[in-house]
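Quick log. Single chain, no ligands specified.
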Amino acid sequence: MKTKKAKTQKFLVLVPHRDIRVELQRDCDLTLKAGLAGVYKFPLVAPLASLSREAEDGELKQIAISLRETAGKNKITSQEDAVIDFPCYEKKLTLCGPRLDIVTHQDLFKNVNKKIKYIFPSFVTGCFLMPDFNHDSGEDGKKFNAMRETPRKQLGFRAAAAANMYWRTLRVNGEIYFKWKIGKLFWLPRP
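-> predicted structure:
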């Protein structure tokens, strides 16, 4: 068995509370049962930015404070499902899941600006990754559209944490697998 490892990518992520992740897992399981080709599980976090180096503890703590200031006393809610590009070394993939209603402001990433390689255009709690294909064509496109038309309960949460996520692509005998680890959690302060 031949295993080829790519270098580890680093992401700044928002980790919703475990109760929300349990609800999202049910939706992910239904999606995977739909039988879409080439779908990969994602760790149920919302990537905020791709980093050249991991964020340090003090930086993550400040990001958690900034996220709380952005959300205020309100819950962070999910809107409609969204599909966004996910930067990956091996192949072009899209991240799918509920879009979060977080509005970014320039101070959100001020303490890690030098480490940021890419800021995601919108924040999506990733349920799964899938190949970038034309969603309106072919059998997989029909399955994808049917899944997207299923009404999803709107989720809302106040408890969440900022963290580093370490992402590695593995190629085993020509098949692609993904391995990830979520770093230490820095919880958003209570409103």
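The radius of gyration is 17 Å.
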